[in-house]
Design brief:
By secondary structure, this protein is an alpha/beta fold. The chain is built from 15 helices and 15 strands. Helix 10 runs parallel beside helix 12 and helix 11 runs antiparallel to helix 12. The structure holds adenosine monophosphate (AMP) and zinc ion.
Length: 463
């Protein structure tokens, strides 16, 4: 089955055909490095890592070029460095290293190129000069602004009306703007702010031009896929699109625009500004394995909203535990060969990254492993274990030696079991007996037997 991806530009699933034969080029907006990544940020990284893995599997690892930038010029960075009393370079280097460590733990492959804004200012200045020469931008009072009126297709990606765009961008109404929708390409810096020399005075680039210049530098004027979270469609991606296409004489910028849905807490988008965030770093510190976080993030389809709860994390933990238990049956080394991946798993992923369905296939595979083990069909069990390991690899999961993973989990097992028992008691109290039975069955599946006491409490033992 060919790869099919939902394109935010056409608003439908389209068959994916690379522009350049068998070579795929993808750009994803990376982190602004001033603080630890929260799990909403991690969702964007893991989703596009999942896509990267599927593309590598389909076209070959040498045929995919994945660029994800590091935004290391931004006003939030300036503010955070000042608040910490820390030089900007120290702050960005430190948070970039933390970002790498956290994303490595989630099994996210490093991109092929990771450009930094600070390394691409001359390219940004050149692109701005081109936009001015072409009549798409103008300099005013030390600023350079993109003139939205010069680009009739402005708004095509986000499909917003002019009024909505102006309201959505919360634009500054500045006297030097010809149109309230015009956005900044270059702005002046005060002596205490980072600054580069430019034809418009000492200053720094705006956020949007950074990605237009870096994608051009590393992928060319036209490429296959551009990704990021839903919040980036407007204004960030709309502005990138306008800048790049007008700088390139109207040539198409990107074939597929892809956006992951929000991760939220109590129906509110997780964000640093609201303070309702959980960092990846904290979860890892609490002993949650990176693969559990990854599985929790992939259990929901990437375009759907994902409500982050302890229960969702527990569920992912139990699911992964079960996969590793199956992989450990017979306690022998499992053959790991990527080509063995199960067709339905691959096909589900090729259908616009249907990770929930693919994960169901993975769980079914574990059931089959267990069955053949119990029936003493050793050869079949070994074959299925190879398929399970390869299918897991497509997900960036099951990369740890099963015995080592299971030992690590055993230590936190008791806490996990106690929290499930509490959830079951609560379910019974609320007369949700089907839920209570389901929890009992889940525990039986991992070898835990429950004994209900007359006083309403529950004891447990290992089978
Ligand atoms: P930032 O560092 O805020 O620029 O965000 C980096 C990436 O994380 C972008 O692709 C954002 O769209 C994405 N992102 C931020 N918050 C969330 C969230 N709550 N859910 C999903 N993606 C998010
Ligand atoms: Zn960007």
């Amino acid at each position: 089955m060919p790869l099919v991806l939902y394109n935010s530009l056409t608003r439908r699933k389209d068959p994916f055909v690379p522009i350049d034969g068998n070579n795929v080029r993808m750009y994803v907006c990376g982190p602004t490095v001033y603080d630890l990544a929260h799990i909403g940020n991690a969702r964007a990284v893991v989703v596009f890592d999942q896509l990267y893995r599927v593309l590598r599997h389909t076209y070959g690892a040498d045929h995919v070029r994945y660029v994800r930038n590091i935004t290391d010029i931004d006003d939030k960075i300036i503010d955070a460095a000042r608040a910490n009393g820390e030089p900007i370079e120290a702050l960005t280097a430190r948070t970039t290293a933390l970002f790498h460590a956290d994303m490595d733990a989630l099994g996210a492959l490093r991109p092929d190129v990771e450009p930094r804004c600070t390394g691409h200012v001359p390219q940004m200045i050149a692109m701005i000069a081109k936009l001015i020469a072409g009549g798409n931008a103008y300099a005013a009072e030390g600023h350079v602004l993109f003139a939205v009126a010069s680009w009739p297709r402005y708004g095509r990606l986000s499909r917003r009306s002019r009024q909505e765009m102006i309201a959505g961008a919360r634009v500054e109404v500045a006297p030097y703007k010809r149109d309230p929708g015009d956005f900044v390409l270059w702005k002046p810096s005060t002596p205490d702010q980072p600054a580069w020399d430019s034809p418009w005075g000492r200053g720094r680039p705006g956020w949007h031009i950074e990605c237009s210049a870096m994608s051009e530098a590393h992928l060319g004027e036209t490429f296959d896929i551009h990704g990021g979270g839903l919040d980036l469609i407007f204004p960030h991606h709309e502005n990138e699109l306008a800048q790049s296409e007008s700088a390139h004489g109207g040539k198409k910028f990107v074939n597929f625009w892809m956006h992951n849905g929000f991760l939220s807490v109590d129906s509110t988008k997780m964000s640093k500004s609201l303070g309702n965030f959980v960092t990846v770093h904290d979860l890892l510190e609490q002993g949650v394995p990176g693969e559990v976080i990854r599985l929790a993030l992939l259990s929901t389809h990437y375009r759907d909203p994902l409500n982050w709860t302890d229960e969702a994390l527990d569920q992912a933990r139990r699911r992964l535990f079960r996969l590793y238990v199956a992989l450990n049956r017979g306690k022998h080394p499992v053959v790991r060969d990527n080509d063995l991946a199960l067709d339905p798993v691959r096909e589900a992923l090729e259908d616009d990254l249907n990770t929930p369905l693919a994960l169901t296939h993975l769980s079914d595979l574990a059931t089959l492993v267990n069955r053949s083990h119990d029936l003493g069909e050793i050869e079949e069990r070994d074959r299925l274990q190879g398929v399970l390991a390869a299918s897991g690899q497509l997900f960036g999961l099951l990369s740890i030696e099963p015995e080592i993973f299971l030992k690590g989990e055993q230590r936190s097992d008791d806490a996990l079991i106690r929290s499930r028992i509490a959830a079951r008691i609560q379910a019974r109290r609320e007369r949700r007996f089907a839920d209570a039975d389901q929890i009992r069955n889940e525990l039986v599946n991992i070898g835990i037997i429950l004994e209900d006491k007359p006083d309403g409490t529950t004891d447990w033992r290992k089978a």
